[in-house]
């Protein structure tokens, strides 16, 4: 049994999708990041960077409970544990890892900043909006070219697709139009049609809030004094 500490965000959905794709048993523990659950001392023992998602695998290595944070590490761990969604042979395996790292180092941070400056910044900062919107568009272009060469990012459907897909669901809020990226649209529709993906996206979906609903307390927890308090 795996404990999944999550909240309905793109990073959280990566892991719930993988758990569903693998048919693993898991229990969901909501981490309401607008309420500050991520700073709970017990959660920080599992995820010292105060971010969800995190897991505890009660059937970890040596049969011991194994805690893990960082969504990319969790996806790699689950792929190794199950032998699914990542090739074993070196060249194909590193193709998956390469596109997973592309997501972790590029897509997540840049799409996230585009989202932040377009939806959450208390006042509009044109330089930041332009920079992150354009960089996000450039990354969509990289994906589009790649997906013009093969069906999925690493050839076969893999954890790299599961990592990128949830971030592309909010393309409009990132200032993008999928008509400009037809290969991404084809890929998006194929992944979105997978029943396991829909089950993964349903995890805590009813708790999802619109950015316009964020209040001052939540803003302080996520982006202000509460976030930067030394712990
Ligand atoms: N690199 C991390 C990023 C995780 C992350 O940014 N999680 C956000 C929500 S999507 C979070 O927990 N934010 C709460 C906070 O920063 O206090 C991963 O991929 O797991």
Poorly predicted residue ranges:
none
Helical content stands at: 40-55%
What is the N-to-C succession of helices and strands?
EHEHEEHHHHHHHH
How would you name the CATH homologous superfamily of the largest domain? Glutaredoxin
Overall pLDDT: 97
Strand content: 5-15%
Strand-pairing-aware structural class: alpha+beta
CATH architecture of the largest domain: 3-Layer(aba) Sandwich
Rg computed from alpha carbons, rounded to a whole number of angstroms: 18 Å
Question: How many helices?
Answer: 10
In spatial order, strands of the major sheet run 2-1-3-4
Task: Give a quick account of the main beta sheet: strands, pairing sense, barrel closure.
Answer: 4 strands, mixed
CATH topology of the largest domain: the name is Glutaredoxin
**Which oligomeric form is depicted?**
single chain
Distance between the termini: 31 Å
Query: Mind telling me the CATH class of the largest domain?
Result: Alpha Beta
Number of spatially distinct domains: 2
What ligands can be seen in this structure?
glutathione
Topology, number of strands: 4
């Amino acid at each position: 049994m795996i404990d999944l500490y999550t909240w309905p965000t793109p990073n959280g959905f990566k892991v719930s999708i993988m758990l569903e794709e693998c048919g693993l048993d898991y229990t969901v523990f909501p981490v309401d990041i607008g309420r500050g659950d991520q700073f709970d001392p017990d959660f920080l023992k599992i995820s010292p960077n105060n971010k969800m998602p995190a897991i505890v695998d009660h059937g970890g290595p040596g049969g011991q409970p194994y805690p893990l944070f960082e969504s990319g590490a969790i996806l790699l761990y689950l792929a190794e544990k199950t032998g699914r969604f990542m090739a074993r042979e070196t060249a194909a395996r590193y193709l998956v890892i390469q596109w997973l790292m592309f997501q972790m180092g590029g897509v997540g941070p840049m799409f996230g900043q585009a989202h932040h400056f377009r939806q959450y910044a208390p006042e509009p900062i044109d330089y930041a909006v332009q920079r992150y919107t354009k960089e996000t568009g450039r990354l969509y272009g990289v994906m589009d070219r790649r997906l013009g060469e093969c069906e999925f990012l690493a050839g076969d459907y893999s954890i790299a697709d599961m990592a990128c897909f949830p971030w592309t669901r909010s393309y409009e809020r990132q200032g993008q139009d999928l008509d400009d990226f037809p290969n991404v649209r084809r890929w998006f529709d194929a992944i979105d049609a997978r029943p396991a993906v829909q089950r993964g996206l349903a995890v805590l979906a009813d708790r999802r809030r619109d950015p316009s609903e964020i209040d001052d307390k939540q803003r302080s927890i996520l982006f202000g004094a509460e976030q930067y308090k030394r712990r």
